[in-house]
Design goal:
The chain is of the alpha/beta class. It folds into two domains: 2-108, 3-Layer(aba) Sandwich (Cobalt-precorrin-4 Transmethylase, domain 1), CATH 3.40.1010.10; 113-219, Tetrapyrrole methylase, C-terminal domain (Methyltransferase, Cobalt-precorrin-4 Transmethylase, Domain 2, 2-Layer Sandwich). It is 33% helix and 20% strand. Helix 3 runs parallel beside helix 4 and helix 6 crosses helix 7 (164-174).
């Protein structure tokens, strides 16, 4: 009775680990987020195995069905559409139920857009805040940005490719013109770009029509205001 949480590439196919391939081949069945992406990966790896899907639409109901299969003594591997599972992806309920029923859960680490974006951001990584996907509504999103910009650590923001323009617009409205950001586009893919600068500089680099590509945005920490030091002056005699 074992559930493996398997990281797969975020773009470049060579980024899958040998351990991940071995795990996907040796378990009794596989669990993916969407059949189309799951089958594509298995075809690339020449793996022919029972494939179930677990997504936001069926997670609650299908978790229990998967759990019953695992309780029969089977082993399964869960992978998402790309990268490391469970970051803004389904699967957390299944992992929780596995812990509650005594099923072993083992991580198979690998590619992660979160970590890839952080290490090229040019920020201190002793701590960071994962904000994930912000609200779709502009008013709510601006309120969230207003709160996040006060953080003294890097903030990681995700969103859908087609909402990049709306996010950039709201960031411009709420951030100081001096605030630094790093925007990573299409990480590990041939058209990968890492843009660094203020919100105004990023807007210039992106042009009038920001590309609809997978991205991770890092909001750099707020720079603390320097306190004014009292300087003693000598009186002239």
């Amino acid at each position: 009775m074992t559930l493996y949480i398997v990281a797969i590439p975020i773009g470049h196919p060579d980024d899958i680990t040998l351990r991940a391939i071995k795990t996907l081949k040796n378990v009794d069945f596989l669990i993916c987020e969407e059949f189309k992406n799951g089958r594509k990966l298995l075809k690339q790896l020449n793996i022919d195995k029972e494939l179930l899907n677990l997504n936001e639409h069926n997670e609650e109901a299908d978790t229990e069905e998967i759990l019953q299969e695992l309780l029969k003594g089977k082993k399964a591997a869960l992978f998402s559409d790309c990268g490391t599972p469970l970051f803004a992806d389904p699967g957390s309920l299944l992992v929780k139920r596995c812990h509650e029923t005594g099923i072993k859960v083992i991580p198979i680490p690998g590619a992660s857009s979160l970590m890839a974006a952080l290490v090229v951001a040019g920020v201190q990584l002793n701590q960071f805040y994962y904000a994930g996907f912000l609200s779709r509504n502009s008013t709510d999103r601006r309120n969230e940005i207003r709160r996040l910009q006060t953080f003294s650590c890097p903030v990681v923001i995700y969103d859908a490719p087609y909402r990049l323009n709306a996010l950039i617009t709201d960031l411009k409205a709420e951030l100081s013109s001096l605030r630094q950001l790093t925007l990573s586009l299409s990480l590990t893919k041939p058209d990968e770009k890492v843009l660094f600068g203020t919100i105004g500089e990023l807007i210039k680099m992106l042009g009038p029509k920001p590309p609809k590509k997978e991205f991770v945005l890092i909001l750099h920490p707020q720079i603390p205001k320097k306190s004014k030091k009292h300087v003693k002056t000598r009186k002239r005699r």
